[in-house]
Amino acid sequence: MSRPLHLDISEQLRQQINQGDYPPGAQLPSERELIAAFNVSRITVRRAIANLVDQGLAIAQQGKGVFVTERRKAAYTLTNPGLFLVEDLARQGITVTLETIAFECVTPPEPVQNVLQLPKREPIAYLQKKILYMDQVPGCVDVTYLLPELGEAFADELKHQMTFPTLAQQGMPIERVEAIIECQSADPELSQQLQVPLGHALLVYRHTAYTAGDRPVLHGDSISRGDRFCYAVSLDHRR
Q1: Whole-angstrom Cα distance, residue 155 to residue 17?
Q2: Most buried of 63, 67, 160, 174, CB within 10 angstroms?
Q3: Residue 137, pLDDT score
Q4: Which of the four pLDDT bands, split at 50, 70 and 90, describes residue 92?
Q5: What are 222's strand-pairing partners?
């Protein structure tokens, strides 16, 4: 089955933007020019432009046209465990907002049960899924399993705030994090949530967080757009 024409057009324009044919701030061809160039209808062109806008690659200005957006890549510093994501990105001039799409008590997969040291008789945890928007563009999907007593006690806060600062505010700061960073391709669900094409390169930050007494309290994946997000690490051997 062939792809819809609007996806082919937006993909060609996306590649031209990535190649620098249309740098940040540049105006994209008008509707009339795109209709003539691709020999398609006005509605097809408008859908193609909407795809670019949804991906955060372009912005439509009423009466002026469509322009390529400034594409800053957010960098989260892993070296300092006390530096939270929102404040780290705020120092870079990037505003982070979040949308909770799931918060429920579940029986997690067995590997998660083992990591969180859940009781065998009742291995339950709170599953929370959040989409993080960076300057109003979806940049990360966070999928985290949290100890049930924490999910129950701080449900209202956790639904509206990031997990690490919420625990810190409640007197349970994270003291240690074990993590691995790997790559995966966007599946249909992540493609829709992060507004990227299928197969788009994504960064996966798989982590387990520990509080006092080396107690594991959460385990999850932060899945980020590789074109919008990266991690920074500073190693100092003098210490």
Answers
A1: 42
A2: 174
A3: 83
A4: confident
A5: 142, 205
Which residues on neighbouring strands pair with residue 104, listed in sequence order? 127
Give the pairing of strands 229-232 and 74-77: parallel
Task: Give the integer Cα–Cα distance in Å for 67 and 237.
Answer: 45
How many other C-beta atoms are found inside a 10 Å radius of the C-beta of residue 183? Answer: 9
What's the pTM value of the predicted model, to 2 decimals? 0.73
Are 60 and 161 within one domain? no
- Whole-angstrom Cα distance, residue 96 to residue 155? 20
Q: Do 94 and 209 belong to one domain?
A: yes
The number of beta carbons lying within 10 Å of the beta carbon of residue 172 is 17
Distance from C-alpha of 6 to C-alpha of 55, rounded to nearest angstrom: 14
Q: What is the percent of the chain where pLDDT is above 70?
A: 95
Q: Are strands 65-68 and 58-61 parallel, antiparallel or unpaired?
A: antiparallel
Shared domain for 188 and 106, answered yes or no, is: yes
Residue 28 pLDDT exceeds 90: yes
- Last-in-domain residue among 17, 38, 68: 68
Q: Where would I find the H helices in the chain?
A: 5-18, 31-38, 42-54, 85-90, 110-115, 148-153, 155-160, 163-169, 188-194
CATH label of the domain that carries residue 141: 3.40.1410.10
pLDDT tens for each residue of 219-228: 999 999 887 7
| CA proximity to 182, closest of 198, 202, 199, 196 | 202
Q: How many domains does the chain have?
A: 2
Segments forming the whole domain that contains residue 215 = 74-232
